[in-house]
Amino acid sequence: MANLDGTSKTDLLTSGFNSYPNAIVYSSFRRKIFWTDKGQYPKIEMANADGTERVTLLDGDVDSNFTDPTGICLGPTEQLLYWTDTTENTIEVLNLDDRQRFSTTIGNSTYVHDIHPFGIARYFEDIYFSDIRFDGVYVIDFPAGNVALASMKLPIPAEIHIYADTSCPGGNFCASTGTCVINQRQPDATFRCICDEGYNGKHCDLNIDDCVPDLCMNGGTCTDGINSFTCDCVAGYTNNICSEKY
To answer: What GO MF terms are annotated (predicted)?
Structure first.
């Protein structure tokens, strides 16, 4: 991890990989990172943005038809996690709320009869994927599943990233402590708010009570802050949670 200018570089995770992590995506809504790990024992894992609370979502030793996870991306609402499998030649989906796994529907195509997806990106209702065997980038209109050629004759196309303005038109529907983004364009545009640290609610106007649960000990009084709390200790106790006698 680093600033956009390359400064303050920090290693988040340095061990526990089978071979090498291939692709990574960040969820601003969940404040989690997700990545694919290719190798003899393939995995898809997630962790907090600082690398803590690492969890395995899919494991090649346990999950069937999970061989070579490569590209990875999130859907517009960040509820669905998409990945490509370059050995199974599939695009699959994991619902992050109920952990249900399913495959995307690939319908009629004028250009391809057998997909070999590598990189993947989701842009509103469309899924884009690169195919390193056919040297092209294709788009699937979701959920119909029809495939069309987006670009061809590319030298070994690999990862795909889409950069687009998804801010809400005509003003901000969120409080000043949130950012409004478009969930979907069709059939009707819907919006949601991505909250700053310490806030939640539909419009990001609710300050999360950091005194629940109350971590102040030995009779200390908790005062809520913005993504923080302070403890006012009774006589005889000190430190940030009033746990130390003096």
So the answer is: calcium ion binding
